Amino acid sequence: MRIVIAGGHGQIALRLERLLAARGNEVAGIIRKAEQGDDLRTAGAEPVVLDLESASVDKVAERLRGADAAVFAAGAGPGSGVQRKDSVDKGAAVLFADAAVRAGVRRFVVISSMGADPEHQGDDVFDVYLRAKGEADAYVRGLDSLDWTILRPGALTDDAGTGLVRLEARTGRGSVPREDVAAVLAELLESPATSGLTLELVSGSTPVPVAVKAVAGN
């Protein structure tokens, strides 16, 4: 498959790129800064320099044409303020989804966040973040032209992955290594029967391929 990842220099995205490239896929990662390109090449991905906060739908669609799948892994990051939660975590996600529709890319996987909810209350930065992610997820779920899957991991850690997870519509709070999130994403991309599902993810006791097969088609 050819897979295009928005937010290609993110910590989960770089892990995902390595996994996908190792499986023989053609991977491209959208990045904002050209100097991030070497990290993507090392991971086995083609760097594509494009700012999703300022690019047009047509410009992003150009980069998506010919892809078999798209992954939204971009985020404003922990040091960003309220404005960028809206422009990246919501705005860029909506733009990327619209571009996928325009480019004819049906398979669309989103890295969201546990607790994302368009009705989430509060004005703190994290509250705005959860609301923005929830609004983006709701927008994607409304696009009939996409075979979407939304993944909502718990608290992310840099611990070594175990390959053992809990993946369900509702898991309850928990943490999960970024490495295991990437492994689940790679499996989801190869499991079109998970389209139309919003899934929570935490560490657990089920091997990743088994966990994905268990939810497929539900």
Can you tell me about this structure?
The protein is α/β, with parallel strands linked by helices and 218 residues long. It is built from 7 helices and 11 strands. The chain has helices at residues 11-22, 37-43, 57-64, 82-103, 125-141, 178-189, 208-215; strands at 2-6, 26-31, 46-49, 69-72, 107-111, 147-153, 155-157, 164-168, 175-177, 197-203, 206-207. The strands form 2 sheets. Strands 3-2-1-4-5-6-10-8-11 form a 9-stranded mixed beta sheet, sandwiched between helices. It is globular and about 40 Å long.
Question: What topology emerges from the helices and strands here?
Answer:
Elements: E1 2-6, H1 11-22, E2 26-31, H2 37-43, E3 46-49, H3 57-64, E4 69-72, H4 82-103, E5 107-111, H5 125-141, E6 147-153, E7 155-157, E8 164-168, E9 175-177, H6 178-189, E10 197-203, E11 206-207, H7 208-215
